Amino acid sequence: MTADEAPILAGRFRRLAAWAVDAALVPTLTILLVMIAGVVEDAEDFSDNFWIFWVLCLAVLSYLILNGYGLLTRGQTIGKRFLGIAIVASSTGDRVPFWRLVCVRALFFPISFLLALPPLTVLSLLDQGLIFRSDRRCLHDVIAGTMVIESQSK
Fold first, then answer.
1. Do strands 85-89 and 146-150 pair parallel, antiparallel, or not at all (unpaired)?
2. Residue 57, class by beta-carbon neighbours within 10 Å (0-12 exposed, 13-18 middle, 19+ buried)?
3. How far, in whole angstroms, is CA 68 from its chain's centroid?
4. Which of 2, 32, 49, 106 is deepest in the core (most CB within 10 A)?
5. Confidence of residue 116 (pLDDT cuts 50, 70, 90)
6. Mean pLDDT of 109-116
7. Spatial distance between the Cα atoms of 140 and 96, rounded to a whole number of angstroms
8. First to last CA, the chain
9. pTM to 2 decimal places
10. C-alpha–C-alpha distance, residues 34 and 61, integer Å
């Protein structure tokens, strides 16, 4: 993209579809890793809440296995790559530092799975609801200083 070209914002449907792809793949790999690691095989495994920590660690590992390289090199999760969209810095249109994609922006990914918990329902709805603004940026985009655009390499 040259300095004269304005980035083309990704469509709301494409963003939602990319999220759906990621929302299917990450938990699927997490479940597979939980089964391989034997985190919750026996009833005794549930005797304390430590198993939740291990499942969370495996979920983060799953996210990084599936999306780490793409986020680092192209600003794309698997879903975003599949749908031809990418994450860039909202101020410059440049690649976003990996730490900001993972440590700030990705923190909102699991919140969308927790709609049953009232305080997080509000946060999740606010996060996703902001996509209907003219700049199509969700709350996690605003906080991380990112926007999602059509990718140059589809």
1. antiparallel
2. middle
3. 11
4. 106
5. low
6. 69
7. 13
8. 14
9. 0.83
10. 11
